Amino acid sequence: ELKVEQNPLFLSMQEGKNYTIYCNYSTTSDRLYWYRQDPGKSLESLFVLLSNGAVKQEGRLMASLDTKARLSTLHITAAVHDLSATYFCAVDIESGGGADGLTFGKGTHLIIQP
Amino acid sequence: NAGVTQTPKFQVLKTGQSMTLQCAQDMNHEYMSWYRQDPGMGLRLIHYSVGAGITDQGEVPNGYNVSRSTTEDFPLRLLSAAPSQTSVYFCASRRPTPQAYYYTFGSGTRLTVV
């Protein structure tokens, strides 16, 4: 059974600080997805990481992938209040004919306080 | 482009009632899927379809039926609603590339079964 584990599940931090969200997964997938969800809203795609060593950055967010360790990180630099949201990582559910869908972590609820 | 459109946005059902959650996409994506999101559980795959006339079960299919008669539509049916089906339901389609899949999620349907 494919498992995706995120930690922490809840994070309260101050503006200006740095922090990292971790995502461990149990499959050998080379692809990992990060999404953002605001309260009551849909999922917004942040990053698609395609290979070992992949690093992508958008503004204050940077994601990386280590397929050998089956670990992805989402690093937040100099956090601002607008980054408050729930962040999910997800991995493809692989079958013989391709990916059936996504398995998600439980999400990291991030609150950034002034 | 409207993307992925879900209706209704909110619904309250009584135990034992039936209903259909609608999902339509205008991106000509072959793949469509349904997820449910429960507090602290992330999103879990219910059913998916890789093209018209083809459907398959995901992680939590019990209590739900689907069909795919057209590329655009992928309705989710609850034949006899139960309180355990209280959840937020997301429909998603995806665009394949040689490297990865790019998912588009609908805005969600919040369902309460009393």
Give a verbal description of the structure.
- The complex is a heterodimer of chains A (114) and B (114).
- In chain A, 0% of the residues lie in helices and 61% in strands.
- Chain A has strands at 4-7, 10-14, 19-25, 32-37, 43-49, 55-58, 61-66, 71-76, 85-95, 98-104, 108-113.
- In chain A, the strands form two sheets. In chain A, strands 2, 4, 5, 9, 10 and 11 form a six-stranded mixed beta sheet that branches. A five-stranded antiparallel beta sheet of chain A has the order 1-3-8-7-6, with no helix packed on it.
- Chain A starts with a strand and ends with a strand.
- Chain B has strands at residues 4-7, 10-13, 19-25, 31-38, 42-51, 54-57, 64-66, 76-78, 87-96, 101-105, 109-113.
- In chain B, strands 2, 4, 5, 6, 9, 10 and 11 form a seven-stranded mixed beta sheet that branches. A four-stranded antiparallel beta sheet of chain B has the order 1-3-8-7, with no helix packed on it.
- In chain B, strand 4 and strand 5 (42-51) form a beta hairpin.
- Chain B starts with a strand and ends with a strand.
- The relative contact order of chain B is 0.33.
- Chains A and B meet through strand 5, strand 9 and strand 10 of A and strand 5 and strand 10 of B.
In DSSP terms (H or I, runs of 4 or more residues), the helix count of chain B works out at 0
Instruction: Spell the H/E element sequence of chain B.
Output: EEEEEEEEEEE
- SSE order of chain A: EEEEEEEEEEE
Could you give the count of β-strands of chain A?
11
**Global mean pLDDT of chain A:** 93
User: Whole-Å distance between the termini of chain B?
Assistant: 36 Å
Question: Uncertain spans of chain A, ≥5 residues at pLDDT below 50?
Answer: none
Helical coverage of chain A, percent range: under 10%
In helices, the fraction of residues of chain B equals under 10%
Query: How many helical elements of chain A?
Result: 0
Portion of residues in beta strands of chain B equals over 45%
Structural class of chain A: mainly beta
**Chain pair forming the biggest interface:** A-B, 25 and 24 residues
Biggest sheet layout of chain B: 7 strands, mixed
Strand proportion of chain A, as a percent range, falls in: over 45%
Dominant shape of chain A? globular
Give the terminus-to-terminus CA distance of chain A: 41 Å
CA-based gyration radius of chain A = 14 Å
Largest sheet of chain A: 6 strands, mixed
